[in-house]
Write a structure and sequence with these properties.
By secondary structure, the chain is mostly helical. The protein has one domain. The protein is built from 11 helices and no strands. Helix 6 packs antiparallel against helix 8 and helix 9 packs antiparallel against helix 11. Keywords: Membrane, Transmembrane, Transmembrane helix.
């Protein structure tokens, strides 16, 4: 049983992040607020239905990984291509960095769930999840970038660090779930197992929180690298 207060906070975090993602997509794609909101609500509905689909298909714990892998591939491709570049160009690196502040309350939720026995310690800042650092740095990084103080360097460092933290989290999840991979690599043996992808609404940790953060980081890094290449090619010989 998930404690109601952290669960309420979690839903609020997801709602806030979803609104922010819809807003930046609306500005970049010129969809309009209603169309962007409908796209985000559709994504929430589709991914929110996955746990019920897993139960119906009797997929077990392993069912959460293929859908998450496909989601990651999708957001990385979007971040590396025109949609991601348009998001950065339309909204700015500072605003995209500021959105990552959502990771602070999310990490607080994970700590509370750990105390309630729903989440293993390695998924929190008491264990091996250091993603709280990204949340703490989000606003300072955004302010420095907005003030044009070495903006490219700060933006690159912040996004590279944040992406590395997400890779670490994904590895922790893979090694904390009851799958052959954990047995093969000698993963975490602490309980409970990480099964957030099998329950509603915690499935949104992967499909909204992690996927959204990956998209923002990949879009920003890809944009910065592309700009750097253009500047280099423009330098006269």
């Amino acid at each position: 049983m998930i404690a109601p207060v952290p669960l309420t906070l979690f839903v609020l975090v997801i709602a806030g992040l979803s609104a922010a993602l819809a807003a930046i997509m609306a500005r970049a794609m010129q969809w309009g607020p209603v169309a962007s909101a409908l796209v985000m609500v559709t994504w929430l509905a589709l991914t929110g239905a996955l746990p019920f689909l897993f139960v119906w298909l009797d997929l077990g714990p392993a069912g959460q990984f293929p859908s998450f892998a496909l989601t990651l591939v999708l957001v990385v491709l979007l971040g590396l291509t025109k949609p991601g570049h348009r998001v950065v160009a339309a909204n700015g690196l500072a605003w995209l960095a500021a959105i990552h502040v959502f990771r602070l309350p999310l990490e607080y939720v994970l700590i509370q769930w750990n105390g309630a026995g729903f989440m293993p310690e390695q998924m929190t800042w008491r264990g091996d999840n250091l993603d709280v650092i990204t949340g703490l740095l989000a606003i300072p990084a955004a302010v420095v970038i907005a003030r044009d103080i070495r903006p490219r360097l700060i933006a690159f460092a912040f996004n590279a660090l944040g992406l590395a933290m997400l890779v670490n989290i994904i590895a922790i999840v893979a090694l904390s779930s009851p799958t052959p991979l954990r047995a093969l690599l000698g993963g975490y043996q602490t309980k409970p197992d990480v099964l957030v992808g099998l329950y509603f609404p915690t499935v949104w940790i992967a499909s909204v929180a992690v996927a959204g953060a990956v998209f923002l980081h990949v879009s920003s890094l890809s944009y910065l690298i592309r700009q750097s290449r253009h500047r280099t090619s423009a330098v006269p010989e």
